[in-house]
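#struct-help
A.M.: can someone run this one for me? Single chain, 519 residues.
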Amino acid sequence: SYSFCTLLDLSRKKGGGEGMNETSTALASGIINKAYVQNANSALQRVESMIQSLLAQRRLPDEGWPDNIIQYYLDYLSLMDSNNYSGNVGVGEREGRVYSALVRQRHFGMSHGIGRSGDLIANQPKAAGSSLLYSLTNFMAADALRLAGLKLIESAMVVPMATGMSLTLVLQSLPSNSLPDSGTPSDSDPCQKKKWIIWSRIDQKTCLKCIHTAGFRAKVVELIPDIDNPGFFITDVKGIESAVEACGPGNVHCVLSTTSCFAPRSPDKVLDISRICKKYSIPHVINNAYGVQSLPIMKAINSSIEHGRVDAIVQSGDKNFMVPVGGSVVATPTDSALKQIAATYAGRASSSPIVDIFITLLSLGRSGYSKLLADRVAILSEFHAAMTTLASEFGEKTLISPRNDISFCITLSSLPNRQVTALGSALFNHCVSGPRVVKLGERKTICNCTFDHYGSHSNDTKQPYLTLACAIGIEKDDVSVFAKRLRTEWGKLIKKIKKDQKREAQKAAEKEAGPGDGD
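D.P.: on it. Structure tokens below:
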């Protein structure tokens, strides 16, 4: 049936929502005025209709739910878990016992988690309410992705791990390729000895560590300059295919591409990569960390599914749905691919990130999430204009590319390279979070891969810069206040640099002149 037993004996009828049943209504009417009971019952019927619609339609509600009804439904689902049964006696090793009342309250009484030992999306006999909540969350998450533009997915699930570890899970779930190709790599070539993941460079540690943690090695393909957008870097599509051929397709576990990224990197050309993967029968995983908020990115992924090969797309929970860190959304073009990923997860899992997304999506509804996406796009042009004006005041320019509609840069070429990070520190000390200052010359080795100018995505970066993001949830006041603080701190830094340079010049002059006659 569409409804379940609640504290107020909600009806089990499949028709329109019904509040208290006839017996409860009659009993209540014997205690207080019957007209009052009927009015209250009408309100309960509306709540029951909302619950029935959610269960029947299995998608985001058109309009967000108020908090009191979300709380009511969470309590309602919690009563369906065995640890909350009236008179339940548990004599097993895991019975949902929670010592702290505060912890119990934080989790709405749901302590069994999700999944079973061999499958993340399997229902739990002891936790019907938690299992139902998880299924509904997955339905709503998939609907949110489609609403944002990713129309061609069949399934999605919320994974109670952040993006990096979820990528590791996905990589481990992919079917192994055929035996290593003979004759292509030499005997000394490590491609012959271990499966490779072809990876278009992005200077974000998680993207590389997920490969290493999954037990594979990254074959790094450097980016190339974007001739259409000077200062930006784009995917070396030919380099991707050359890497596949050099290793031998049978030695390549998959290609891992990245969409959302810090400028001056552009999203990978996922359509071109998907065609290469289809050509060579190689899995393709897309790291779409915060790309849900970008319609061009979502359309590019759609085209990749339609015309090439895409096995899984991984999205961040906090970056796209404004919830605490800890969850992600994995989407697949086929149900079977998602089931394989779910079956790779070892053991049960925490329901905390799932409850966060469940509450948030119910609170937003389709209209609320659509508005968040539209508001971000509306602010983007204003953000660009404000930063372009400010940059020109200091003799700098903004680096903006239509390929990357989330992140952009402000050059810092007029500042000494060794002192550019002082600007980022000053902003952080004045309650500005998010901007990243990238200076030249940083050399880092991560998972046995060495990168020059780390943080800039390329060995060919020519100047330091400040990178910014116009992300979901940003407001106009954020832009105006940030512009004011950036102008102030940038001006202070320039004055300090000039003062230090003057002092150093004086010291150098005194040293050159030598001691005076009276010394």
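A.M.: thanks! Residues 1-16, 178-187 have pLDDT under 50 and may be disordered.
D.P.: also worth noting: The first helix runs from residue 22 to 29.
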